[in-house]
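Q: Sequence in, structure out?
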Amino acid sequence: MATGTLTGTTIASTYKSLLRIGSGSSADNTVLDADLQIVEDGDGNNSCLQLSTDQVLVKDASGTDVASCFEVQDKDGTVCLSVNGTNNNVGIGTAAPTIKLTVTESAGSRVASFINSHAAAPYGILIDYSNDDPNGAGNSFIDCDDSSATRFALLSNGQIKSVVHYATAAGSTQTALYVDDSGFFGKVTSLREHKKKISDMEDISWLYNIRPVNFEYKVRETEERINRKGKSEQWPTGKWLNEADGIKQYGVIAEEVAEVSGAESLLEYDGDTLSGVSYHKFVPILVKAIQELSAKVEALENA
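A: Exactly. Output:
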């Protein structure tokens, strides 16, 4: 090819591709204010790539957002990375990202890996809902869906949903899970090494001042949510309706227990607000009560 007679304009009009380096203006009225521009042609309608000292700009030459303004493909034409200029969505492994970041994988391996190698502060992922209502049951931090429903969800109000808890055997060795008054999950240990000031249990006659009751829980209010599969689901709102659920329960009333001197350790609090009773703490007290009753029965039998 004889290059001596070719100019940038003839290259652009002939091959629909033009590389410009530097600054200034050209015959097609495109201002070159970047270090590098690659323009399909100069009519102001086609896509361009602009690299300047502090940014990478990919846009329509007229400044209009375009639906697919940037893609990276492998040698076979499979999209590895895509950026949608209309809705600002980013896709990894997909050419059609449906939300701000869509990552797809079909090779049977992990979709994403987050590695923080900092020795002192290896922080993970931060999900910030500070501009939203934290009690909204419809606001999900994390959703794990299969083809038909949401299998696991962590909501912004702290609720956790997992539909397989009662469908999966826990095994022969089981440990109860508890939540402390700071919201941390864990188990209650009975090992000696974690305890101080061990002594025999004191008088438990106050136990007989606690009133056992039958009751039914109020119905939890729910709202409809449409999951990403288009299926309808009912999610709790965190509120309770003034009607019974029809299921007979056995227990105590926390406000009544709070009035019983000696029962303070059985109470649960959310900050300074009474929130319930720890039923598992009744167990050692009831053991003591059974021992005392057994001793009385034995004494009467031997009299």
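Residues 192-295 form one domain.
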